[in-house]
Write a structure and sequence with these properties.
It contains 13 helices and no strands. By secondary structure, the protein is mainly α. It binds fe (ii) ion (2 copies). The site of one fe (ii) ion (FE2) has 5 residues, from helix 10.
């Protein structure tokens, strides 16, 4: 365990270069010139993040509002639980990303982290926006409290929160690198049973406005996962003492545990009570997603037997967003400039 502490980024440093000397504990003048940054992937990522810009206000909820009473009781229940979960995750994520930004000694990565934090704020707003058009204020408030009482939810959320808190308490390079892995679990795995639920509703022409927002959130999260994956790999490169077999094994082990929690949650919200999604397939989809994230982080996959996405229809959303289908007709997409760099085909 490395207990060396992390330095906070200085507000400015006359004697340091504009392009930093390291992601953590490096030197940086803290001046941001996108044409003089340490990593060549940083600016394209910034452009993609801005190209994804959206706000919930653009999405008209009137059809969803009409359909809401027609959903089955199980669908409504799962819908509310998932929104309650997402609201917790995105709230915590806003703050974690802001805290982590203070210890990145690279002005361009700190800038990307601030854009990421802002996007988490928009995600959170979308949950209030969705609920305020479907349920009364009292019920909305209750849904935002679910995370405090639902045991399955609590177990999952604690898993992440403990990893984040260790970083906040210890501020060591080791706790930092571990928290980055928890981040990729949060943004790259813990949303996915929920995403599948909404996409399944949408392919049955239900709650399409809500799913449109979920689709935008999903797209943002893919960029966030890529940002944290870059940070993970570059930090290991720059700090050989962190680039250990134990840390690589930590990735695989953490994703294995996280998959169990996500599958449990999937049983809780989807089980075999939602038309169109079989629990076996959802389980494999979660394992498939965990494998993808481990590969991205350069670690062995936890489920070598799972090589294909069993929920093929989720792939269809790529085409939807490329304008090949008019599945989502909620808003004009002319400024949604999806490019290959933003990892959309990872969906
Ligand atoms: Fe988010
Ligand atoms: Fe995110």
């Amino acid at each position: 365990m490395n207990h060396q502490s992390l330095q906070e980024r200085k507000l400015y440093d006359l004697h340091a270069p504009n392009a930093s000397t390291g992601i953590i504990n490096g030197e940086s003048s803290n001046v941001l010139n996108w044409d003089d940054v340490r990593f060549k992937w940083a600016y394209p990522m910034y452009k993609n993040m801005l190209a994804n810009f959206w706000t919930p206000f653009e999405i008209n909820m009137s059809n969803d509002r009409k359909q809401w009473p027609e959903l089955t009781a199980e669908e409504q229940e799962s819908f509310k639980k998932i929104i309650g979960l997402l609201a917790f995750l995105d709230s915590v994520q806003t703050d974690y990303s802001a805290k982590v930004a203070d210890y990145l000694t690279d002005s361009s990565l700190a800038a990307l982290m601030q854009v990421l934090s802002f996007q988490e704020v928009v995600h959170n707003q979308s949950y209030s926006y969705i609920l305020s058009s479907l349920v009364d204020k009292q019920e909305q408030d209750e849904i935002f409290e679910y995370w405090k009482h639902d045991d399955v939810l609590k177990e999952r959320n604690n898993f992440i929160a403990e990893g984040y808190e260790r970083f906040v308490d210890e501020k060591s390079p080791q706790a930092f690198i571990e928290s980055v892995v928890y981040d990729v679990v949060l943004e790259g795995l813990f949303f996915y049973a929920g995403f599948a639920f909404f996409y399944n509703l949408a392919r049955n022409q239900k709650m399409v406005s809500t799913s449109t927002m979920i689709n935008y959130i999903n797209r943002d999260e893919l960029l966030h996962v890529n940002l944290f994956a870059h940070i993970f790999k570059e930090t290991l490169n720059e700090n050989p003492e962190l680039n250990t077999e134990e840390n690589i094994q930590f990735v695989t082990d953490t994703f294995k545990q996280a998959t169990e929690l996500e599958v449990n949650w999937g049983r809780h919200i989807i089980g075999n009570k939602i038309d169109g999604i079989h629990m076996d397939e959802l389980e494999e989809y979660i394992q498939y997603t965990a494998n993808k994230r481990c590969k991205l982080l350069g670690a062995p996959v936890p489920f070598p037997g799972v090589t294909e996405n069993p929920l093929k229809w989720i792939k269809a959303y790529k085409e939807v967003d490329e304008g090949k289908s008019d599945f989502f007709e909620q808003k004009s997409r002319q400024y949604t400039k999806v490019s290959d760099d933003n990892g959309f085909d990872e969906l």
